[in-house]
Design a protein that fits this description.
The complex is a heterotrimer of chains A (about 270), B (about 350) and C (about 250).
Chain A: H1 3-16, H2 21-24, H3 27-42, H4 57-65, H5 70-84, H6 91-94, E1 98-102, E2 105-108, H7 109-133, H8 137-146, H9 151-181, H10 190-217, H11 234-252, H12 255-264
Antiparallel strand pairs in A: 1-2
Helix pairs in contact in A: 3-7, 3-11, 4-7, 5-7, 8-9, 9-10
Chain B: H1 10-33, H2 39-53, E1 58-59, E2 66-67, H3 72-79, H4 81-98, H5 104-130, H6 137-166, H7 173-205, H8 220-241, H9 248-262, H10 268-281, H11 285-292, H12 296-306, H13 313-339
Antiparallel strand pairs in B: 1-2
Helix pairs in contact in B: 1-4, 1-5, 1-6, 2-4, 3-4, 3-5, 4-5, 5-6, 6-7, 9-10
Chain C: E1 6-14, E2 20-29, E3 34-38, H1 45-52, E4 60-65, E5 68-69, H2 75-81, E6 82-85, H3 89-92, H4 98-108, H5 113-126, H6 142-154, E7 160-164, H7 172-184, E8 188-192, H8 196-202, E9 205-210, E10 213-219, H9 220-225, H10 227-232, H11 239-242
Parallel strand pairs in C: 3-8, 3-9, 6-7, 7-8
Antiparallel strand pairs in C: 1-2, 1-4, 4-5, 9-10
The chains are: A mainly alpha (about 270), B mainly alpha (about 350), C alpha/beta (about 250).
Chain lengths: ~270, ~350, ~250
């Protein structure tokens, strides 16, 4: 079982509960800015590479100001790259239109579009991870509810999160005991899987019933109320307007190309 | 089958997000109408259960390779379709936020592909029909496998359509379909096995845990809507597919030809324009082939001005410097922050 | 005789499959007293506890709160007044932060936000866990979880505090803190437990359950010192009494 995933969840949760000015910004504002960021990144044309570069400023600045270790984020992105992009990897095979010559080398469009895909993936996925790391699941769900996501769904996210570790622990214990009894074999037969997972499911159902009993004993009548509310302030406005303006600017003017052009004397 | 942000255009992503958001709101309403407060903790804990169960691998009989549960179908069996959809959506959301599993733009597509088909197609239309009594082992296992396979085939097909409509991948429709569907056939069988394995245990140990309701899952109107959508999707698919029937080689050649023409344009419009060009070429295969060969030198020149500054050498140089600058600014902020 | 705060008259309970869990249970609880409910596993302690706040409805007999039989209309008030702390703190603490868990009860009562916040801080202070306010539950130790669970009940100012195996999974320090806490409460306390030493330290009265029936009832020292009685019902005489170290 991939216990490593739980450790990752725990780490991200730790980061989410730090206290920096970035963390204290309104979750709704951060969500809006990240959404705009993702749309901006994905709106570039398929061969775009240099135009994407200025956008790296966003994740870098956020990671710094939020005390989020860049290693953690980049490692996750790097690990996910091959799986996420098995489709994109076909591009160099299929697209042979020559678009660039470097001396005697010809770079085909396929490689450029693949690079563009990789860059985009890095940008958008880092943004999602950083959003969580600088907000925390709790504030994020409160923000979601405030923007109109059904309360039932926001509650569901929090409950799911709350019991992840509990169920995970139970599963780990059950698997360990099965392993100890199966002479070192790491594989579960379908029959053993049926019993193990079935038991885990029944325990989970029992737990849910006990939780319900607790909830009802404390007056639960269908709606879960949470006191947490944020009021956006001037810092949120600055964050929102500042980044939005930046994204729009670099979408339509390519500072990288301009810089390169100035340095090499070429004018595109 | 997780889609990644990088392969979806904002238009496709946005559309799927709208569909998913609508579904979430509708399901939340439906679940509330059940007036069953017990569902609140149950959905949460079962979400945690599925999340965990996805990480438990079993050996697939007769192959030796390992598989695991996806969960959409099992959730529908335990909770009914509306609650199941919400739980699946919550699991995928947590995965998108905590892991680099695909990103936020793709989340709308993923929730739809992995949530809608098992809960609203596979479960009510196949599982419920076949597996009237879960105690009947043959029906349980065959029903689970068939439902899971169909649910995943539909989901995989949706991935193909979404990727095609986005126009970022160079894969042609034919190639992509030939890639996706067989793989997901295997994944579907595994899902069916895993689901049946768990349900068979639960039915033996605690039969009342399995969701049952005499009321139909969908109203007649919703069912009609679903059928119309399926017909529409089928029509779109056949439009894509028209002419792709002669196989891989031909579609690869087609793809190469298409890319060069598409280069100067961007966005959804270019995709539609490409489609029109494709269908226009279709009646006359020889005309197309004839055109590419003698035109090679001109195409070579045509490609150059067609590509924008972003890909010229100066653009690349500028790009590298900008990247370094962005990193530097980020780093300096961190140092300053630490000194405060 | 004053009206007992909680009274049970001829209570019987059968599970849906027909198994009889409780038979002809009659007992009363006065304001301010601490009663230990003891018995072996399967004696029916947890089932009985669930009747005290209306979670389970008896098949026979009645439960009276302040002299009035518990009815549907009264349930909300009964649940405020009879606070039950269940055995597994992970079932009790289901929100994302300690604050939210302790605030759950007051919020469900419809109290205004300032008052809710005040009550939360007060309850956490009372159990010595004020500093854990913003912590998520999975980061707490067993003892901390137990204390916070009690705080979730205190926040709604109950008249009776019911606890199911409160000292299970606690280390000695946590257990000692719990015992001190329970001794300090003024409310009626009903404690179902295997921890007989705790019963001696905290409770004045003991009720012995076996096979769903009350087999003995009386002052703690008298009941728990009765070796024959204890052994006959799956229990034993606690060491604290053997070595004559009464803490009262």
């Amino acid at each position: 079982m991939k216990a490593a995933r739980y450790i990752e969840v725990g780490q991200m949760d730790e980061l989410g509960r730090l206290d920096t000015p970035l963390h204290r910004l309104d979750a709704r504002v951060k969500m809006a800015v990240v959404a705009l960021f993702v749309v901006t990144v994905m709106s570039f044309p398929r061969y775009e590479i240099s135009g994407l570069m200025p956008l790296f400023l966003f994740p870098f600045v956020l990671m710094s100001s939020g005390n989020i270790p860049s290693g953690a984020i980049l490692k996750k992105v790097a690990l996910a790259l091959p799986f996420a992009l098995f489709v994109g990897l076909f591009n160099p095979l299929l697209d042979h239109s020559p678009v660039l010559t470097l001396g005697s080398w010809t770079v085909s469009g396929g490689w450029l579009s693949l690079t563009s895909i990789l860059l985009r993936f890095t940008l958008t996925v880092s943004a999602a991870l950083i959003l969580l790391a600088c907000t925390g699941i709790y504030r994020l769900c409160a923000g979601l509810e405030q923007i109109g996501v059904p309360a039932l769904f926001a509650t569901q996210l929090l409950f799911l999160y709350r019991y992840l570790f509990v169920i995970g622990d139970e599963a780990l214990r059950m698997i360990r005991s099965v392993r100890m009894r199966s002479a070192g074999s790491k594989k579960l037969s379908l029959r053993t899987y049926s019993t193990l997972t079935g038991h885990l499911l029944l325990r989970s159902i029992d737990r849910a019933q006990r939780i319900y009993r607790s909830m009802v004993s404390r007056g639960f009548a269908g709606q879960i109320r949470v006191l947490y509310r944020t009021r956006p302030g001037w810092r949120d406005a600055v964050f929102l307007i500042g980044w939005s303006a930046f994204f729009i600017l670099v979408r339509f003017w390519n500072p990288a190309a301009a810089l390169g052009g100035w340095l090499t004397g070429e004018h595109p | 089958m997780h889609m990644a942000d990088a392969l979806i255009s904002p238009a496709v992503g946005g559309t799927m997000w709208a569909a998913t958001a609508g579904l979430i709101a509708w399901c939340a309403k439906k679940v509330k109408e059940l007036h069953d407060d017990r569902l609140v903790p149950m959905m949460g804990v079962l979400g945690a259960f599925i999340f965990t169960a996805q990480m438990i691998n079993f050996t697939i009989p007769a192959t030796g390779s390992s598989g695991h549960l996806g969960g959409g179908l099992l959730l529908a069996v335990l909770l009914g379709p509306h609650a199941a959809f919400l739980v699946m959506a919550s699991i995928l959301t947590v995965q998108a936020l905590f892991f680099a599993d695909g990103g936020l733009l793709a989340l709308g597509c993923n929730i739809f592909n992995l949530g809608f088909f098992p809960a609203f197609v596979a479960y009510p239309l196949i599982y419920r029909v076949l597996v009237k009594n879960p105690q009947n082992r043959l029906r349980l296992w065959s029903g689970s496998i068939l439902s899971a396979v169909i649910g995943l085939q539909l989901g995989a097909f949706a991935v193909v359509l979404e990727t095609m409509a986005s126009g970022i991948s160079d894969l042609s429709f034919g190639t992509f379909v030939l890639l996706m569907q067989p793989i997901h056939l295997a994944i579907g069988v595994v899902e069916g096995l895993a689901t049946a394995a768990v349900v068979s245990f639960v039915v033996y140990a605690r039969p009342e845990a399995v969701h049952s309701t005499e009321r139909p899952v969908m109203t007649r109107r919703a069912l009609t809507g679903l059928i119309l959508t399926a017909v529409l999707l089928g029509g779109v698919a056949s439009w894509f597919a028209s002419g792709k029937l002669d196989g891989l080689e031909w579609s690869l050649e087609k793809t190469t030809g298409r890319e060069e023409l598409a280069a100067p344009e961007e966005g959804i419009h270019s995709n539609l324009a490409q489609l029109q060009e494709k269908t226009a070429f279709l009646p006359d295969y020889t005309f197309k082939v004839g055109e590419t060969e003698p035109d090679l030198p001109e195409e070579h020149e045509a490609a150059w001005p067609a590509v924008d500054a972003g890909t010229s050498l100066s653009g690349l140089l500028g790009g590298l410097i900008t990247l370094a600058a962005a990193a530097g600014i980020g780093y300096s902020l961190r140092t300053r922050h630490k000194n405060e | 005789m004053s009206t007992p705060v909680l009274e049970i008259k001829n209570l019987g309970f059968c599970y849906p499959d027909g198994t009889e869990a409780l038979h002809n249970i009659s007992c009363r609880f006065e304001y301010g007293e601490a009663v230990g409910l003891i018995g072996g596993n399967g004696a029916g302690k947890s089932t009985l506890l669930q009747h005290l706040n209306g979670c389970l409805t008896p098949s026979e007999g009645t439960v009276l709160f302040g002299g009035i039989p518990i009815s549907r209309e009264m349930l909300a008030e009964v649940r405020r007044a009879v606070g039950v702390v269940f055995q597994d703190p992970d079932d009790q603490l289901f929100m994302s932060t300690v604050f939210d868990d302790v605030a759950f009860g007051p919020l469900n009562l419809g109290l205004p936000s300032d008052e809710v916040t005040a009550r939360v801080h007060c309850a956490l202070e009372r159990v010595g866990m004020r500093h854990l306010c913003d912590r998520p539950p999975y980061k707490l130790s067993g003892g901390e979880k137990r204390a916070v669970s009690i705080a979730t009940i205190l926040a709604v100012s109950p008249d009776i505090i019911v606890l199911d195996e409160p000292s299970s999974n606690l280390d000695p320090r946590g257990r000692r803190r719990l015992i001190d806490l329970l001794r300090g409460f003024g409310q009626t306390r009903i404690i179902a437990t295997h921890d007989l030493e705790l019963v001696v330290e905290v409770c004045q009265r003991a009720i012995v359950l076996d096979g769903g029936r009350i087999v003995a009832e009386g002052p703690v020292v008298e009941i728990l010192n009765n070796e024959e009685l204890m052994l006959a019902h799956g229990l034993e005489r606690p060491h604290i009494l053997r070595h004559q170290h009464p803490h009262h």
